[in-house]
Amino acid sequence: QSALTQPASVSGSPGQSITISCTGTSSDIGDYNYVSWYQQHPGKAPKLIIYNVNSRPSGVSNRFSGSKSGNTASLTISGLQADDEADYYCSSYTSIVIFGGGTRLNVL
Amino acid sequence: QLQLQESGSGLVKPSQTLSLTCTVSGGSINSGGYSWSWIRQPPGKGLEWIGYIHHSGSTYYNSSLKSRVTISVDRSENQFSLNLRSVTAADTAVYYCARVAYCGGDCYYYGMDVWGQGTTVTVSS
Asked: Which of A89, B35, B62, B122 sits 20 to 30 Å CA-CA off B42?
């Protein structure tokens, strides 16, 4: 089980939109819609922000959205805010769990 | 609301066994058909899934750790545990416990929706 591939970092200015990609294989992301995204602020536990590719848990801002095409899932954050600066991890589930390497979002 | 709290030794000697417990409060570990998972994060690195115990009692582990890991549940104590044998410095990390939730219909897998605050484990002589 290899880690999913994410860019190490992305940057954006307040109010802008950014997209983080997450590439897997035809055996995980490509074959199932069980893609989740987590947000982690420094020194804190991760927080679930997207499940089932594009669904948001109750209480998560609609500025967060997800999508999938082929073997690649994406997380888009619109209307960037300072508090969005954090690490983001994608994850796939196929009875086992695989995380991406994580992406640091810098809000300039 | 449901809360998870990790506990256990923060310092383990190389070759020994790392043992952690996650105590569930604000709800029962027996309810809702949830699974219970362990995840770790080495210093300055990303998340690594260790494994989980399914509500059926089956266990699923990361293939890279499978030979050294055991996850078990003590339903009478509302706890679940992690044992990692033959540790080395590479096992130094923050260890998190988390609840794995499921949803209905085509959704099925919801994700890890409740996390403990994490506990730091250092492997050193």
From this structure: B35
Nearest by CB: A48 against B37, B64, B112: B112
- The DSSP-derived string for B20-77 is EEEEEESS-TTSTT-EEEEEEE-TTS--EEEEEE-TTS-EEE-TTTTTTEEEEEETTT
Amino acid, res. B109:
Y
A-chain residues within 8 Å CB-CB of B37? 97
Neighbours of A14 (CB within 10 A): 11
* pLDDT tens-digit readout, B85-112: 999 999 999 999 999 999 877 778 899 9
Identify the CA nearest to A75 among candidates A38, A40, A46: A38
Q: Does A5 touch chain B (CB under 8 A)?
A: no
| β-pairing verdict for A9-12 and A103-107 | parallel
Q: Which of residues 19-48 of B touch A (CB under 8 A)?
A: 37, 39, 46-48
Residues of B whose CB is below 8 A from A38: 47, 111-112
Tell me which DSSP letter residue B89 carries.
Answer: G
Where does residue B86 fall: left (phi above 0), alpha (psi -120 to 50 degrees), or beta otherwise? left
Q: Tell me, what's the pLDDT at B35?
A: 95
Residue by residue, DSSP assigns A55-66 as B--TT--TTEEE
